[in-house]
Design goal:
The complex is a heterodimer of chains A (241) and B (125).
Chain A (H helix, E strand, L loop, with lengths): L2 H13 L4 H19 L8 H16 L3 H7 L1 H5 L1 H7 L1 H6 L1 H6 L1 H25 L4 H8 L5 H10 L4 H26 L4 H20 L4 H28 L2
Helix pairs in contact in A: 2-3, 9-10, 9-13, 9-14, 10-11, 11-12, 11-14, 12-13, 13-14
Chain B lengths: L1 H20 L6 H16 L4 H10 L8 H8 L2 H37 L13
Classes of the chains: A mainly alpha (241), B mainly alpha (125).
């Protein structure tokens, strides 16, 4: 039997197996956690990034449609909704810290939101990206449903926006810890908030692996940055007519 | 555990309803989070069961993003189709944003509220 024929059959098999993508994702992730530990826990290779890379390459090698995989692994994606609601738990637990840092949070939100929007606009210019593609980049630091809404408002491409949002989260959550160590940012409030502002929910998920304080401040950064970005862009669009 | 999960799902469903009713440009789960937070404030904190539910999932939250993130790896057509500069822009932009925000945060903390010594961490880095 030729290798290609077998791979093709695997693709067909996957399409008929609604659970296979889910089971494979869990198995690969569990394997990645083990590998990560064996390698001495390198921060530049978190388990979920290793798993993402392995599954992505397997799909490419096997010629399996991404959509078929995604539909089969979608229960994990659905679980994100309840998990976002559950973020109320660490936010309430760290309420004292957050109240104490209210001034910091307000200033850092204004700064972070301005920086993300500024960088996203500048990057479009710098890399000479077409206008509708550049519009898809503007809101890439906020969580997907919000970013897609903003992108549509600015005449961007929703599909591309969803992709650059998740790419942003992936990059942000992988580089954050090594970057903070390099820059000697040691305060978990500053670390977490930056991760939530720059890399939305994926950065927030990663921040909880640093500490609950980092996670709570990341949740706060993600939520406030999404609200601030919507507000700033809504005003901007209205003013510029 | 079942009660806590049911309550969380109810908050999410209510969030979806609120977003649909007022056509808010927000995910329903975000409004659900606000509702759950309000509930916790009113009751003086999350019940033990909900706390345990969160503690049970918090260690591996990034796992839930794997299906969506695989789309970045498994779509070579995007790079072949001239999206390479876009991906470069995303990487560069994210690093710059993250670095500037974290540095500003650290500077503001030094200026506003000098932190107590950072708590010892559970794992060596």
């Amino acid at each position: 039997m030729s290798g290609e024929g077998m791979i093709e059959r695997m693709g067909v098999f996957l399409e008929g197996q609604p659970m296979l993508g889910l089971v494979a994702t869990l198995a690969v992730y569990a394997g990645a956690v083990g590998l990560h530990r064996t390698l001495g826990a390198p921060t530049l290779m978190p388990p979920f990034a290793l798993a993402t890379l392995a599954i992505g390459l397997a799909l490419l090698a096997g010629g399996i449609e991404y959509r078929a995989y995604f539909e089969s692994a979608e229960p994990l994606h659905w679980a994100l909704g309840p998990v976002v609601v559950l973020l109320a738990v660490p936010l309430h637990r760290r309420l004292g810290d957050i109240r104490a840092a209210a001034g910091l949070v307000a200033m850092l939100l204004a700064f972070g939101c301005a920086v993300t929007l500024g960088v996203n606009l500048a990057v479009g210019r710098l890399f000479e990206i077409e206008p509708e593609v550049a519009s898809s980049l503007v809101a890439r630091s906020v969580t997907t449903p919000v970013a897609v809404g903003i992108s549509e408002m600015l005449g961007g491409l929703p599909g591309l926006t969803a992709l650059v949002v998740i790419a942003t989260g992936l990059v942000g959550s992988v580089v954050a810890e090594p970057l903070f160590r390099l820059m000697r940012v040691e305060d978990d409030r500053a670390r977490g908030f930056a991760m939530g502002v720059a890399a939305h929910a994926l950065g927030t998920a990663r921040a909880f692996q640093i500490s609950e304080t980092a996670g709570a401040f990341a949740s706060l950064g993600m939520i406030l940055n999404a609200l601030a970005t919507v507000a700033v862009l809504a005003v901007g669009v209205t003013v510029s007519g | 555990m079942l009660h806590a999960l049911a309550r969380i799902l109810v908050f999410q469903a209510l969030g979806d309803l609120v977003c649909a009713a007022f056509s808010l440009p927000l995910p329903g789960a975000a409004v659900g989070l606000a509702l759950a937070f309000g509930w916790f404030l009113a009751r003086g904190g999350p019940d033990a069961e909900t706390g345990r539910l969160f503690d049970g999932v918090v260690g591996h939250l990034p796992l839930l993003f794997v299906p969506a993130a695989v789309g970045v790896v498994a779509r070579p057509d995007l790079v072949a189709g001239g999206w390479l500069p876009v991906l470069v822009a995303v990487v560069a932009g994210t690093v710059v944003t993250l670095a500037l925000t974290a540095l500003a945060g650290a500077a503001l903390i030094r200026w506003l509220a000098p932190a107590p010594e950072p708590a010892p961490r559970g794992r060596t880095v």
